[in-house]
Design a protein that fits this description.
Length: 318
């Protein structure tokens, strides 16, 4: 019997087999057939290249690789985001996932990728052994028992709800001005922006307006009793308004709006700033932990560069 691991790009049958294997981990109450059908129809699932490892003709390990671009110290560089890493239970502990991760990293590097990110759901030490670096990753939570009223909103700050279909270009400008100024961040193409609307069609969108007009936006996902901050940007460099003031106003307004809409909790991926700490309880994420693996010698991380990852938005999670 041939026990070697055969690694290849997944065909349709491989994709179904990999999904059936992963149902035990990501099924979340769905039946096996419901889970497979839902994933196959998902825009996010369909946007990835799938790689599998086979033993004796059966899929035993799989992962997804998504093309992503990154801001890197003022440039835009190509890379990948890794998701859905899964090994069949009876084949664990034999190095199959590590072999697949390393092979995919080599193939991505040959295709020009400079960085690889993933969002870890297990002990991160597993991925640090594969060359990934642990990034700051905070979860912010506000249980909506705090009492804010409109008199606490001063200086003309407000949220203005809008439909995103006609406003993607301005959202993209705010995002690029904000996140593009960081040492590194996810960069978004116009096609990627369009894809995010298809992927998350029920999100709520708001402009953040201050005394000088619009200075940012926020995108909220509806998750049962929680309003989840999926994406946001603030760009105040060309105004007389300080970023901390704008950030505090955004959080206060979101909490007020969440209370008005009847949510019991508001939060999401947030940076470790003083403004975030003033309104949310910040704890290190135990799941979906941001990690990065340099695939090019020129992309090396000092502490300041690594720290910029705490501004990653949930929208970009895979």
């Amino acid at each position: 019997m041939d026990e070697r691991l055969e690694i290849r790009v997944a065909d349709d049958a491989d994709r179904v087999a990999a999904l059936r294997n992963a149902w035990e981990f990501w099924g979340r109450g769905l039946s096996l057939e419901e889970y497979v059908e839902r994933r196959l129809k998902s825009p996010l699932y369909g946007s990835a290249r799938r790689y599998v490892g086979l033993r004796t003709g059966e899929v035993v390990v799989a992962l997804a690789a998504y093309d992503r671009s990154f801001y890197w110290h003022g440039q835009i560089v190509p890379g990948i985001a890794i998701g859905s890493v899964h090994t069949r239970p009876d084949c664990r502990g034999q190095g199959h996932a590590a072999a697949l991760l390393d092979r995919v990293a080599v193939m991505a590097t040959q295709q020009g990728a400079k960085l690889s990110v993933l969002y870890c759901d297990i002990a991160p030490q597993y991925y640090t052994r594969r060359g990934y670096l642990l990034c700051p990753a905070w979860q912010g939570t506000c249980m909506l028992h705090r009492s804010f009223d409109s008199t606490e909103i001063r200086g003309g700050w407000r949220l203005v709800e809008f439909s995103p279909e006609e406003e993607l270009e301005q959202m993209a400008r705010f995002y690029a001005a904000d996140h593009g100024s960081l040492p590194w961040a996810i960069a978004r193409s116009p096609q990627y922006w369009e894809f995010t609307l298809e992927m998350r069609p029920l999100d709520d969108f708001f402009w953040l307006e201050g005394p000088v007009g619009r200075v940012g936006y926020a995108r909220l996902a509806r998750q049962e009793n929680q309003w989840h901050l999926a994406d946001w940007a603030i760009a105040t460099a060309d105004t007389s308004i300080g970023r901390e003031t704008a950030e505090e106003s955004l959080y206060r307004l979101l909490i007020l709006e969440a209370q008005f809409r009847g949510y019991t909790q508001c939060g999401g991926w947030l940076p470790g700033t003083k403004a975030a700490q003033a309104f949310f309880k910040l704890t290190p994420r135990r799941e979906e932990i941001t990690m990065v693996r340099p695939l090019d010698q020129q992309c090396w991380f000092d502490d300041a560069t690594l720290a910029a990852a705490d501004r990653f938005c949930y929208l970009d999670h895979v």
